[in-house]
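Case study.
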Amino acid sequence: MSSIQPPSEILWWKQPLDRVEGTWIGIALVWSLIMFIMMPLWHVYGKQNLSNEAYRTTPEAFQAKTQAMVDQYTVRTETDMQIPVVRPPPGSDVYLIARLWQWWPLLELEKDQTYRLHIASMDWQHGFSLQPVNINTQILPGYEMVITVTPDTSGDQTIICNEYCGIGHHNMVGKIYVTEEN
Amino acid sequence: MSSQPLFRTCPESGLQFHKPAEWLMRANAVAAVVLLMFGGLLAVGVTLTRWPAFHLLPADIFYQVLTLHGINMLIFWIIFFEIAVLYFCSSTLLRCRLATPKLAWAAFGLMIGGAVLNNITVLGGSSTVMMTSYVPMPAAPNFYLGLILFAVGALIGCFIFLGTLVIAKEEKTYEGSIPLVTFGALTACIIAVFTIASGAIILIPTWLWSLGYIAHIDAAMYRLVWWAFGHSSQQINVAAHVAVWYAIAAIVFGAKPLSEKVSRMAFLLYIAFLQLASAHHLLVDPGLSSEWKIFNTSYAMYLAVLASMVHGLTVPGSIEVAQRAKGLTKGLFEWLRKAPWGNPTFSGMFISLIGFGFIGGISGVVMGTEQINIIIHNTIYVPGHFHATVVLGTTLAFMSLTYFLIPVLFRRQLVFPVLAKWQPYLFGIGMAVFTLAMMGAGTLGVERRHWDMAFADSALGFDYPASAYTMMGIMGISGMAAIVGGAVFVLVTVLSVFFGKRVESESGYSLATSRLMRAEPGIEHAGGHAAAGKWGFAAPGTFVFALFFLAIFVAYYVVNWKYLASVWPLS
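After joint prediction, the assembly is written out as follows.
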């Protein structure tokens, strides 16, 4: 009697189930269905869902939209590289560029306000990883991803790149500053 | 060929080896272990660099070493071994001559050539692109060509396996249906054909793109098709190592499936649903709808998870029934307590089963939940998960089988049997702690494929909490322990195969002797074989164990939803 030999019964598919197997299959199936239902339920009742809103774009088009926002809403610059810090009005469309090896520009958002955050890559694939709140998404060239986000904690958040993008990957850092409402 | 088939029968195991198949299995297994050794050396570099206390390699070398480590371990080592397993499960288990051995050598040559070409290209420094080689980051054309050649060789190996099944049926070398283990190998082979086809569909255009014949490869399309190759190749492993679990249960305990129907149905569910899981990598990608993500990431309502939960019960359940039939019926767990824990073939297999289920399985389902993926995608949690499935699960299962194959296939005695006895524990426990530490660090947001978690060279910087550094330290220590465990395996097997004392086999090669007979019917206890168990259950200890597993699964699942609920609202 062994699993490395042909089944002892010729009509093995007519063998009745063992009770232990039948019971376990029932339990496992119920659990599988619960896990399956949880995802659509979270879309209805949960608050953390990606809308999957996305558009095709080009580096030039996305750069232009981002530049327009930067020109209008820059409040200061940071570091020796004079990276602009942009404070767009609540409810507006906010643009964030991922490129080798920078998140541009830096953003300043207001707590408990909602923004439409557009992100696209100018070159290779990147990973948007917001820490410490821990939100992670994939950023692709040619695709403009839109996430509607409501920061509900104030303080500094750091954007890290968590998709390998070459030798400067580990230096690709950006910031989202969340301020208390005025 | 059929006029002069050369077979020898192993006197200890009763297995019958076809001479050309025997040499092909040896060659593939040796190539596998050599690549495992290379991958293990690279693992030292990766581990000691990500262990913050050492931070050993410079950034460029680290990324190069990580690329090599991933490809050699996840593709080359495992698939070479799987080809050996396929030949074993067809030719050896069915007592049949192997189909077209010359073509099998050509396949072996292609795989070696492809693996060498790919490795040389990455070592040259032009293709530090990680295993995934995401476009539009370019690699040298030979990077893709090496993978394509390797895949063609593996595909030929798959068809030789299928051809051998046809010959076995045609020449009636076995009675009735193919054994469950061969059925599991067939599952692995079918998944492999799907996998390699997907690989061809994406890697051939990408190769042409790298040569300049194609202008553009869409990044989202690349990810979708590449993962049908990249993730499915890991599903070959799942099917193969589950087959190996059943094989070891049969070899060590004479175990028979609780019911053939259930175990085979579970393999069929793998064939139907497992490949949908390439979606696991695309859950936070732009361009795909939630409906698509939910259906695919859950393998259509978790039917492949159901299959794994069934195997997780029936493999130890079959062992329990076999042990109870031998009189080990005291309490719920005497059968397990008195199992041969000093036999590395058994202990490795059992640690593989536990590690794959409890760590790899649960983490995989949790991180593969559409929304929960937001807090896990591309953190070091991900390699934590797949080291639990592919290393703790597949690699350890293959190591266990190797301990059995050294006397049976290579006709050598194990050198250092005491080292071999401890190896599965060192490797398994080291790897288990390593994966848990990575998952802990990933939960704290530490990224994968990243040279410097301290961001020392960045103008803006970021500080992870101290606990993240502690986790990465634990990862370093346990990772090195696992590497030592892996080195012991390589040492024992290589020395045994090349310098071990020969096992003298009385019988030389001759014509095939006997057909493979159907298994003996099980001993029927009065009142059915459930009477040896409890509560009408044939395997009550396993059932209690399964409920314990489910409790942990549910608790961990709920905890992760709660964690997700604490994140900024997104829509």
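Observations recorded in class. Chain A touches chain B through 90 residues (CB under 8 Å). The mean pLDDT of chain A is 95. We will return to this complex in the next lecture.
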